[in-house]
Amino acid sequence: MSFSSVAEVLEGLVALAVYYQAFKFYRLSGEKALLHVSASFLALGVGLLAHGLSLGAVLLVLAGPVRALIKLALLISEVMALALFGCEAFAYGYLAYFYAKPSQEEAAEGLLFPLVLRETPEKPPRPEALIRFIRYHPLLECVVLALLVYLTYKTISNFLSSRDANPFLIGFAFLFLTAAHACFMLSYFLATFYFTAHVLQLLAFVCVFIVLLRVVSA
Amino acid sequence: MRPTKKYRSRLRIISDILSVLAEEGGSAGPTRILYGANLSHDRLVRYLAEMEQKGLVRRVVDDGKTRYEMTEKGWRLLREVRKIEEFLRAFGLEI
């Protein structure tokens, strides 16, 4: 869980760096495509950073002696998980809409954390039950996954037609993100996938960061 | 991948003009720019006047022949535009 928190903060920072660069290019050129890319990465960056930081804070509270704060920490965790879903759905949805546009001229279970709170100290909650505080709901995960499959198709097609290094990295970044979200979905049933998902998501953002460095230093 | 744009944006045209000048070592005559940037005469005159006003190119008359030279500001803009193009190309987009 602490790895998840650190990874999300790093991913959020990379996404915000992409937002900053894309917005800087937009101000220089007035090109609408850059505004779409920057808006998507801003949403992604804010969502990941806020979720990563709140998760870190929640872990600190859970490790501490003040039992009264645990309920509040879990509530915050659940709200931030929903916020992250909203940011991811907006970011990937907005990008997917932008890619699709020219070619075509919540249900939430509010009972989640009471279920875990009801677990007795003798029988600690299964790790899979804890995933629901962090990732919200597998059905919502499906929405993000579907958007990512579409974006992966588009960016990999772009790489296949250009055969350049940067489209390759962006294509693989979306491929890693898709695999990561598939793992996030599987982690509701087997918690070990959660770690794999974060490694894949981190790899995706490393790819995006390399593209950013290549463009800026060119 | 998104289909190629039917119409060139203003930035694309300015970038094409600057690219022609860069290919010619920083200066070229209007005819060379016209063919290189694939523009009509009227549009070329309009764009060059605007670019001159913005300090991107400088008009030089030598032995009765007009040439356009790229200024430092023009070189800087071309470098930035190439970065923008590279960034957008990574996502399968274009100016």
Protein model, in words:
With 218 residues, chain A is an all-alpha fold. Helices cover 83% and strands 0% of the residues of chain A. Chain A has eight helices and no strands. In chain A, helix 1 (2-29) runs parallel beside helix 8 (192-217) and helix 2 (32-63) packs antiparallel against helix 3 (68-100). Mean pLDDT of chain A is 81; it is low at 104-120. Chain B is of the alpha+beta class. Chain B starts with 9 loop residues before the first helix and ends in a 5-residue tail after the last helix. The mean pLDDT of chain B is 88. The chains are: A mainly alpha (218), B alpha+beta (95). The A-B interface holds A 21-22, 25, 28-31, 33-34, 37, 99, 102-103, 154-155, 157-158, 161-162, 164, 166-167, 169-170, 211, 214-216, 218 and B 1-3, 9, 11, 80-84, 86-95.
| Class by SSE composition of chain B | alpha+beta
Return Rg of chain B in Å.
14 Å
Tell me, rounded to a whole number, the average pLDDT of chain B. 88
Number of strands of chain A: 0
Main β-sheet, spatial strand arrangement of chain B: 1-3-2
Largest sheet of chain A: none
DSSP helix fraction of chain A: over 70%
**First-last Cα distance of chain B:** 14 Å
Low-confidence spans of chain A: 104-120
Regions of chain B with pLDDT < 50 over 5+ consecutive residues? none
CATH superfamily of chain B: Winged helix-like DNA-binding domain superfamily/Winged helix DNA-binding domain
Number of domains of chain B: 1
Strand content of chain A: under 5%
The number of distinct β-strands of chain B equals: 3
Q: DSSP helix count of chain A?
A: 8
One letter per element, helices H and strands E, the order of chain A comes to HHHHHHHH
